[in-house]
Amino acid sequence: MPHASDEYRALTDGVGSCDLSDFVRIEMAGRDAVSFLHNLCTQDLKRLNPGEGCEAFITNVQGKIVGHLVVLRPKEGLVLLAVPGDTGRLIGHLDRYCIREDVQFIDRSSTWGIGMVAGAASGTCLTRLVGALPADCYDHRQLTPPFVGAFVARVAWGGPAAFVIYGDREAVASLAAQVTSAGGVQCSREALDVLRIEQGWPWYGRDMTDQNLPQEIGRDARAISFTKGCYLGQETVARIDARGHVNWHLVGVCFDGDELPAADLPLENANTVVGRVTSAVHSPRAGGPLAWAYVRRGFETPGTRLQSTVGPATVVRLPIGGCLSEA
């Protein structure tokens, strides 16, 4: 088994692969799939062409986050990818609003495989195996023989050279095996966790829940359209946009010491609790513990100093290239 540091180096500087078999993968079929989800999420899905995708929040009637998804638009229908969670909960939420629309929600957990390939050399490796790769984030295409039934999509959570392979289980497994044979390193979820926090990718269920508002997550430019018109929860999102702020912000926090902060660790300023950690890792790029945390409005600016029981910390901008340069 490779050492954790070897796995990290593979995912950043070489070729690393991760099994994502516990990730949510839902296929939406039917002629109304795009217009239906467009009316339930924060992104403008109608602008997507086949082969394109985007990041989106699904919100409830109060404007709170029900899901944080990558939405891909193939030739027909939609594909929804999300971090480990309750597939049934998401399908149940969507199905609740399906009345007469021609939409079917298909849980692909048992029929589709899914994995990620990332690292500076991953593009070269995959190109040799499958041909041309998608150029822009969330663009995707179907693979040709011998990987019929599999798709490749460029994604944001693993750095500038990160790709998700999904689709037919045997085809995905075959490609993963060839990546390993070509020198790719099989990496653990722990290594992926380091990478995704360094790259500024929060996970639903850990760094956001149904108690959070979309603008608290700081992904407005990536996941929210403020011009698309009405959708479930849009009134709240628009009101926050007009007001110009939320009371809490999800930010990166770099700790001075070596002790890893636990989830829910309080963060203080002037002996007043102003935030709490959601998830944390030992980050090579940060040179120490790096965390996601919620902080009160006024303490979200990079460079803001905070205190905790595991030592001082600094708010940083993610993705991170190093604590000092980002502060």
Descriptive account of the structure:
This protein is an alpha+beta fold and 327 residues long. The chain has two domains: 194 residues, Gyrase A, domain 2 (2-Layer Sandwich); 80 residues, Elongation Factor Tu (Ef-tu), domain 3. It is 23% helix and 31% strand. Strands 8-9-10-7-1-11 form a six-stranded mixed sheet. Strands 13-14-15-12-17-16 form a six-stranded antiparallel sheet. Strand 4 and strand 5 form a beta hairpin.
| CATH homologous superfamily annotation of the largest domain | Probable tRNA modification gtpase trme, domain 1
Number of strands: 17
Roughly what fraction of the amino acids lie in strands?
A: 25-35%
Which residues sit in consecutive blocks of at least 5 with pLDDT less than 50? 322-327
Q: Helical residue percent?
A: 10-25%
In CATH, the topology of the largest domain is named: Gyrase A, domain 2
Q: What is the SS-derived class? A: alpha+beta
CA-atom Rg in angstroms: 20 Å
Overall, the morphology is globular
CATH class of the largest domain: Alpha Beta
| Main sheet overview | 6 strands, mixed
Q: H/E series, N to C?
A: HEEHEEEHEEHEEEHEHHHEEEEEEH
* Oligomeric category: single chain
Question: What is the topology, as strand order, of the major beta sheet?
Answer: 8-9-10-7-1-11
End-to-end distance, in Å?
36 Å
CATH architecture level-2 label of the largest domain: 2-Layer Sandwich
User: Helix count?
Assistant: 9
Mean pLDDT: 95
Question: How many domains, as an integer?
Answer: 2
